[in-house]
Structures are given as structure tokens and as C-alpha cells.
Design goal:
It is built from nine helices and eight strands. By secondary structure, it is α+β, with helices and mostly antiparallel strands.
């Protein structure tokens, strides 16, 4: 397989994005990066993050871009979209977050400033709390609801709406609602 094909395979899983390390692991020398940028084949998005210029537009490219931004020194993304942003990704409520909400491991550190558009939460998430999407991860609807309830910043009406919508779409199970005291309260109060 050619270096170009290898890179496309990686970028395709990440909505057209890739990192410096990923390109180098495909066999592309760092000295060729400038030529790829000048030719218009690649676009530099952030430090160490590129996008294939002719990759088709996607709905939410920022989700992948900031996920790649969250990578550790071994180039593994650490961030999981959560809280208000996860509500939006799952299309569970009319809440319009002003920032993008991401949960990162407790030991997460970046040597550059956290972008103003992102609000970070530090927590240990289990694999059962995470869904994998194309190029990013997001908390499950159940974990998302528990997070926003615990944070206490979203109105109870929007939480009730999110529970209703999750049940209607089948991405939240009635069994889970009935077994989770935080959600059961809303079920009774809002007659869900």
C-alpha cells in the first residue's frame, strides 16, 4: 500500500484529519510537509494537526479537530465529548452550549493554553460510558444525563426533554431510567 493510501485510510477514519505522527508513521518525511501544504494537498489546522484539502466536508469537523488536539505525548486522543456537547451530539435537547464540553483523564496536561472554546472536565470514564464515532468519542446518553444533572447548570425542563427524547429515539432505555435515582426523579416529576 502506498504512503498516500495509508494516510488516506487514517484520515478517512478521522473525517479527513491526521496528525504529524500519523503522517510520519505512513512513511511521509517531515521535510515533505511544507511541499504538501504549498501544493494545497494538505491544510494545517492546528499545531501538529492537518487535514486533507480535498476530503469531503463533514457535519461536525470541530469534534475531530479538538479530539486530536487532546492527544497525549504518544499521540493518543484523551478527550471525550461530554455534558452539554454530548447532549447536542445525541440531539437530546434544545440546549445550545456556548462552549464545547470535553472530559479528559485526571492526569491530562497540555503545555499550551486550553482554547477558550473548550470547557474541560477531569474524570475517569469507564469504557461503558463511552461511544465511538467517526474520529471522536462521546459519553453515552445515560452518562451524559448523569453528568449534566450533577453539574446542575441545565434547567430541569431541558433535562426532562432529554430523557423523553432519549427514550423516544431508543438510545436511552426505560430500564436504565427506572434504575437510576437521578433520572427516576425527573420521570415522576415530569410524568415521562
Amino acid at each position: 500500500m502506498s504512503t498516500r493510501s495509508k494516510l488516506f485510510e487514517i484520515a478517512d477514519r478521522q473525517q479527513g484529519f491526521f496528525t504529524t505522527r500519523q503522517a510520519q508513521e505512513c512513511g511521509i518525511s517531515r521535510s515533505h510537509f511544507h511541499r504538501k501544504l504549498l501544493s494545497g494537498e494538505w491544510i494545517k489546522e492546528l499545531r501538529g494537526i492537518y487535514r486533507l484539502a480535498h476530503y469531503p466536508a463533514t457535519d461536525r469537523p470541530e469534534l475531530v479537530l479538538w479530539t486530536l488536539w487532546s492527544r497525549d505525548k504518544k499521540d493518543h486522543p484523551q478527550g471525550v465529548w461530554s455534558h452539554d456537547t454530548a447532549l447536542d451530539i445525541h440531539d437530546l435537547s434544545d440546549n445550545m452550549p456556548s462552549k464545547m464540553h470535553m472530559t479528559v483523564p485526571l492526569r491530562f496536561r497540555k503545555q499550551i493554553a486550553i482554547p477558550k472554546a473548550i470547557k474541560l472536565y477531569f474524570a475517569s470514564l469507564s469504557k461503558s460510558d463511552i461511544e465511538i464515532c467517526q474520529g471522536y468519542r462521546v459519553t453515552t446518553p445515560l452518562r451524559t444525563l448523569l453528568d449534566v444533572i450533577a453539574e446542575g447548570k441545565i434547567s430541569p425542563d431541558l433535562i426532562a426533554q432529554a430523557i423523553r427524547e432519549g427514550l423516544r429515539k431508543g438510545i436511552l432505555l426505560l430500564r436504565d431510567v427506572n434504575q437510576t435515582p437521578q433520572l427516576l426523579k425527573y420521570k415522576h416529576e415530569y410524568k415521562i
